[in-house]
Amino acid sequence: MVPQVNCNKIYNVIMKILNDPMIRLLVDTFDLETPEQNILEICDYEYKDGVIVIKKIKVLDSDLNFIRFADLEKVTKYLSKYYCNFNDRATDTDEDNQEA
């Protein structure tokens, strides 16, 4: 006789394991299918009333080549998940940022 298995309990246990923060970190770390992560460069910003106001963000590849400008509304919630740097404004020109 085959024992009866409650699929809902098994599903709940599996989902609990997969949603554990440490397991998610391991899955993200060892996922070989993940493409290289782009770098976000905050290139136009100002410091106003104790707050950094971001106006423009560049998306760079791993070799620091310009890809495109990011849509601020879409990318700001992910800033903590990407490597970000602030551009040295003295060397930033519009000619450097043109797509090839």
Give a quick summary of the entry.
The chain has about 100 residues and is an alpha+beta fold. About 25% of the residues lie in helices and about 30% in strands.
Description:
- It is built from three helices and four strands; from the N terminus they run ααβββαβ.
- By secondary structure, it is an alpha+beta fold.
- The protein has a domain at 39-95.
- A four-stranded mixed β-sheet has the order 3-2-1-4, with no helix packed on it.
- Strand 2 (51-60) and strand 3 form a beta hairpin.
- The chain is elongated, with a radius of gyration of 21 Å.
- The termini are far apart.
Q: What is the arithmetic mean of pLDDT?
A: 76
Radius of gyration: 21 Å
Helix content: 25-40%
The secondary-structure class comes to alpha+beta
Tally of helical segments: 3
Quote the beta fraction: 25-35%
Largest sheet: 4 strands, mixed
Largest beta sheet: strand ordering = 3-2-1-4
